From TrEMBL:
<dbReference type="InterPro" id="IPR001910">
    <property type="entry name" value="Inosine/uridine_hydrolase_dom"/>
</dbReference>
<dbReference type="GO" id="GO:0005829">
    <property type="term" value="C:cytosol"/>
</dbReference>
<dbReference type="InterPro" id="IPR036452">
    <property type="entry name" value="Ribo_hydro-like"/>
</dbReference>
<dbReference type="InterPro" id="IPR023186">
    <property type="entry name" value="IUNH"/>
</dbReference>
<keyword id="KW-0378">Hydrolase</keyword>
<protein>
    <submittedName>
        <fullName>Nucleoside hydrolase</fullName>
    </submittedName>
</protein>
<keyword id="KW-0326">Glycosidase</keyword>
<dbReference type="GO" id="GO:0006152">
    <property type="term" value="P:purine nucleoside catabolic process"/>
</dbReference>
<feature type="domain" description="Inosine/uridine-preferring nucleoside hydrolase">
    <location>
        <begin position="4"/>
        <end position="295"/>
    </location>
</feature>
<dbReference type="Pfam" id="PF01156">
    <property type="entry name" value="IU_nuc_hydro"/>
</dbReference>
<dbReference type="GO" id="GO:0008477">
    <property type="term" value="F:purine nucleosidase activity"/>
</dbReference>
Length: 306
């Protein structure tokens, strides 16, 4: 059983990842922390609470940073995820409230309390994770691993020709996380672009899981439309679910040990770059994936939901 905290900007594929975690028998979800990116941090917190309530999960949500470490705030990615984060599904107020404690403090405390066992899975910009590393020098020692959805070594970018969106939205924070060493795993576009889910896949999920699968299917229309119109792809990438699956099934991914740096300015801002001469300890970057097995795990487990 993996003790997991997901740091998230929900977000359509974030919702897929969180529902996947709710369904997975090998995941003990200890909480969610929220971040800007697909939406603002306030909307991310509202959406995170809403997803947990829909899934019947009583776990805490800690609200995170509202702006990148150094750069000014970016506009939310409404063209990809809709104005409220879930495609055309309108906003709704959850019953619950976030913790008083902020995301970085919550992450530091949980890593201490579950020393050596906590896996943190950031599926949005890395500001909260960098803040946790800066606030508590033992944070990295205390966690079991940090499995990031983000980056691209050989695949090129998705928000610019060079950068993947989560890294682009706070490159300075991502560069801090790149200094975390062997416990840090990047699940980036090199693998997530190989895992595509089609309208038929969402239809089959919704047929077996009408409530939560149905909600994902409703969100998927907007996301699939973006993929078709902008990327010319008949299917959307399972970015965030792939990172959550890598937390429990690392054997489905081929990883390369690479010292990594993030470009923090200019045309290449947000690019993740191999830096063999940097003197940094290598992190792990996923370069290959058993895409069919990841996808079938995703489809099979989501149908366990109501
Ligand atoms: C990442 O960016 C966001 O739009 C998605 O939720 C995912 O975390 C993919 O580049
Ligand atoms: Ca995300």
């Amino acid at each position: 059983m993996v003790k997991l905290i997901i740091d998230t900007d929900p977000g359509i594929d974030d919702a897929m990842a969180i529902f996947y975690a709710a369904a997975a028998p090998d995941i003990d979800l200890l909480g969610l922390t929220t971040i800007f990116g697909n939406v603002t941090t306030a909307t991310a917190t509202r959406n995170a609470l809403r997803l947990l309530e829909a899934a019947g999960l009583d776990v805490p949500v800690a609200s995170g940073a509202t702006a990148p470490l150094v750069l000014p705030p970016f506009k939310p990615s409404s063209h990809v995820h809709g104005d409220e984060g879930f495609g055309d599904i309108p906003a709704a107020e959850p019953k619950g409230k976030p913790l008083e404690e902020d995301a970085a403090d919550f992450l530091c405390r949980m890593a201490r309390e579950h020393k050596g066992e906590l896996v943190v899975c950031p599926i949005g910009p890395l500001t909260n994770i960098a803040l946790a590393m800066q606030r508590d020098p033992e944070f990295i020692e205390n966690v079991k691993s940090i499995v990031v959805m983000g980056g691209s070594l050989e695949e090129g970018g998705n928000i610019t020709p060079h950068a993947e969106a989560n890294i682009y939205h706070d490159p300075h924070a991502a560069d801090v996380v790149c200094q975390g060493g062997e416990k840090v795993v990047f699940v980036g576009l090199d693998v997530t672009h190989r895992i595509l889910c089609t309208a038929e896949d969402f239809e089959s999920i919704a047929a077996k899981s009408p409530e939560l699968g149905g909600m994902l299917q409703e969100m998927s229309y907007f996301y699939l439309k973006f993929y078709l119109e902008v990327a010319g792809k008949n299917g959307c990438s399972l970015h965030d679910p792939a990172a959550v699956i890598a937390c429990t099934h690392p054997e489905l991914f081929g990883m390369r040990d690479v010292p990594l740096e993030v470009s923090c300015g200019g045309e290449t801002s947000g690019a993740t770059l191999a830096a063999p001469d940097s003197g940094r300890d290598p992190v792990k970057v996923c370069m290959t994936v058993e895409a069919d097995r990841v996808k079938s795990l995703f489809l099979k487990r989501l149908t366990l939901l109501p």
